[in-house]
Design brief:
heterodimer; A: mainly beta; seven-stranded mixed β-sheet; four-stranded antiparallel β-sheet; 11 strands; 0% helix; B: mainly beta; six-stranded mixed β-sheet; five-stranded antiparallel β-sheet; globular
């Protein structure tokens, strides 16, 4: 069972470069989200989506774009990378109904360094 | 006030001890609650859901206090392997349009 797959696992960027972090889930979950986690800190919500074509901002959306063209995929785009975006990024998904509703399943994370 | 707050710890307790920590939430309409465990440099994983009547899973007990707006996690007979960060999660409303909020986590360290 693949669950939530994030790629790449590691990435180093130079300031000003752009890139897309990929997230895919095979559980037909409606809800998907992106978090960043800085050393010794909790998870901060960047963007989330409640279904294909629907996205919304979380706590720290600046510098990031998302889109949700399919149920399975929820890519996160860094438009112009800055050192402040050095972090570990987690993608998560969940269904929103039933016994397992709202239980978040996480990908293994992408460790991003911006120089 | 943050929507979900946790004592960051660290809690440093000896093996075999009982330890408990709380998580407070600000939205009284919150509907579902969870505890997650996160090991160093790993993704969070579900530890247990928190039900209104409280629930127990082996050495772990979770409670919900709606009147005071907090959830708690009790770990009995702690093991070295319980060392981790424990995150509480609150869903503000029972709606597919709501965002899921994580607490910042409580670090637990079990010493031999």
């Amino acid at each position: 069972n693949a669950g939530v797959t994030q790629t790449p696992k590691f990435q180093v960027l130079k300031t000003g470069q752009s890139m897309t972090l990929q997230c895919a889930q095979d559980m037909n979950h409606e809800y998907m989200s992106w978090y960043r986690q800085d050393p010794g800190m909790g998870l901060r919500l960047i963007h989330y989506s409640v279904g294909a074509g629907i996205t919304d901002q979380g706590e720290v959306p600046n510098g990031y774009n998302v889109s949700r063209s399919t149920t399975e995929d929820f890519p996160l785009r860094l438009l112009s990378a800055a050192p402040s975006q050095t972090s570990v990024y987690f993608c998560a998904s969940s269904t929103t109904s039933g016994r397992w509703g709202n239980i978040q399943y996480f990908g293994a994370g992408t460790r991003l360094s911006v120089l | 006030r943050k929507e979900v707050e946790q004592d960051p710890g660290p809690f440093n307790v000896p093996e075999g001890a009982t330890v408990a920590f709380n998580c407070t939430y600000s939205n009284s309409a919150s509907q579902s609650f969870f505890w997650y465990r996160q090991d160093c440099r790993k993704e969070p994983k579900l530890l247990m859901s928190v039900y209104s009547s409280g629930n127990e899973d082996g050495r772990f007990t979770a409670q919900l206090n709606r009147a005071s707006q907090y959830i708690s996690l009790l770990i009995r007979d702690s093991k070295l392997s319980d060392s981790a960060t424990y995150l509480c999660v609150v869903n503000p409303v029972y709606s597919s349009a709501s965002k899921i909020i994580f607490g910042s986590g409580t670090r637990l360290s079990i010493r031999p």
